[in-house]
Structure to design on (486 residues):
């Protein structure tokens, strides 16, 4: 099948360790090669270096590539000193806010992160948080239990998929991103336990293979309608608020 | 294109029983278009080498295209050598694999005796290469035993560049391409060691073969002949399967 695809997880720019050519042009080419309509993306600078120039890069990519890119903002709790930082980013109309506790080495249960979420919640902005290590999704489930907007768990794989299921069951505003799903049957389990609307397609492209991420969904036993929901419709409806 | 999957497991997962019996394995082979699978006992790898190998013996069947790795365990050198003696003379068992220790890598000292015994059978010796430490352990064995084909199952995980470097250095190292799904992984490996020592593998039922098939299919540097080598020919020659 050839469904519309919106990729909720792409990252462009240089990495501190050697990676595939991951500049924004490469991302756009990959998207075109795989018929991806739009991607949520942010610059690696914001993750590994400083959030301000990284967020600028992300906005620039959005402006440069028109409707193909939704700019994503990131904030490092390590350098969070003022609520105004969040307010400014909210004004700039970022579609999503992402957080990287693993790479930046901070715990979910962390006062500056809690404060950032408090401010973002006032603005009802969706967030996506890397929860690849056991315990992180649980901590986020407690911290963001009453968060006023969607919360996306990113980086969930074989070792914490059961934890993610529990967290999503307990929190109706939580969603799961698919890029680290590799096991046959995982999508079907999430669908059966939570409903197809809680699953959002993500790839980690261009560093990770966009084709492999798409192939994983396509090779599942989901119906065509369910695949369409995962690939794009859920993100459109629940993250972007599009009809 | 026909494929031999060099890295699969027998045993249930939280999501499926697709690889729990000979009949289910045959059905999975049909689903993923696999001519043959090389199977590790999950029980043997994670807990009980003796029972795991015994169960695996009842599942492997060259006639069905299901071959086994006999599990050996560095903590039990005498019993491991006995396991090698019991199973490696059978054409159904195509090599041995070290059980991966939890939370650490193997050392050359502790695997030396069992690795030395492996020379008698002229069959490959596999390692679970989950990270850089595992890659270094397998590389040390490859250097110490140049006559034994060494297989890195999982290609070093995120440390796949180091696995490729090790394979460039030691010609008896072969890389199963499962593990990470970095978009440039196959092209990078091909540029350093060509296609001859790349083996198609997935980690089924913990990962979908479709992911790794896509990595090979989408690599722009490979010819059809290279793909044929990776999907089937290299394994056929190395393990003497349907040559």
């Amino acid at each position: 099948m050839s469904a519309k695809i919106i990729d909720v997880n792409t990252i462009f720019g240089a990495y501190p360790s050697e990676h595939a050519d991951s500049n924004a042009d490469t991302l756009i080419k990959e998207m075109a090669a795989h018929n991806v309509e739009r991607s949520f993306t942010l610059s690696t600078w914001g993750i590994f270096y400083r959030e301000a120039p990284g967020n600028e890069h992300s906005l620039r990519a959005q402006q440069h590539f028109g409707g193909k890119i939704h700019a994503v903002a990131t904030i490092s709790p390590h350098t969070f000193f003022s609520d105004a930082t969040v307010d400014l980013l909210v004004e700039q109309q970022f579609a999503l806010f992402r957080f990287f506790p693993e790479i930046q080495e901070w715990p979910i249960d962390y006062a500056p992160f809690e404060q950032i979420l408090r401010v973002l919640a006032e603005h009802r902005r969706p967030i996506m948080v890397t929860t690849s290590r056991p315990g992180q999704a649980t901590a986020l489930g407690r911290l963001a239990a009453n968060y006023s907007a969607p919360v996306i768990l990113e980086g969930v794989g074989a070792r914490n998929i059961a934890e993610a299921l529990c967290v999503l069951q307990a929190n109706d505003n939580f969603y799961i991103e698919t890029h680290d799903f590799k096991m046959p049957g995982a999508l079907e389990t999430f669908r059966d336990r939570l409903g197809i609307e809680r699953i959002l397609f993500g790839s980690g492209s261009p560093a990770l293979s966009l084709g492999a991420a798409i192939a994983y969904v396509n090779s599942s036993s989901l119906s065509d309608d369910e695949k369409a929901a995962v690939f794009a419709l859920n993100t459109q409806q629940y993250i972007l608020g599009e009809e | 294109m026909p494929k031999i999957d060099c890295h699969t497991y027998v045993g249930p997962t939280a999501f499926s029983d697709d690889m729990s019996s000979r009949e289910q394995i045959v059905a999975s082979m049909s689903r993923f278009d696999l001519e043959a699978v090389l199977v590790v006992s999950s029980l043997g790898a994670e807990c009980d080498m003796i029972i795991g190998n015994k169960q695996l013996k009842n599942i492997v069947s060259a006639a069905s295209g299901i071959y086994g790795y006999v599990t050996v365990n560095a903590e039990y050198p005498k019993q491991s050598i006995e396991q090698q003696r019991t199973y490696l003379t059978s054409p159904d068992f195509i090599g041995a694999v070290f059980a991966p220790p939890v939370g650490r890598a193997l050392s050359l000292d502790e695997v030396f005796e069992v690795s030395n015994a492996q020379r008698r059978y002229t069959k490959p010796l596999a390692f679970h290469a989950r990270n850089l430490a595992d890659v270094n352990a397998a590389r040390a064995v490859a250097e110490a035993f140049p006559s034994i084909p060494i297989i890195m199952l999982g290609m070093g995980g995120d440390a796949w560049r180091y696995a490729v470097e090790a394979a460039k250095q030691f010609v008896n190292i072969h890389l199963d391409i499962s593990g990470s799904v970095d978009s440039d992984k196959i092209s990078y490996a091909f540029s350093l060691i060509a296609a001859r020592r790349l083996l198609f593998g997935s980690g089924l039922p913990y990962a979908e073969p479709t992911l790794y098939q896509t990595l090979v299919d989408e690599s722009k540097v490979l010819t059809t002949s290279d793909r044929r080598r990776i999907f089937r020919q290299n394994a056929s020659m190395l393990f003497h399967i349907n040559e």
In short: The longest strand of chain B covers residues 3-10.
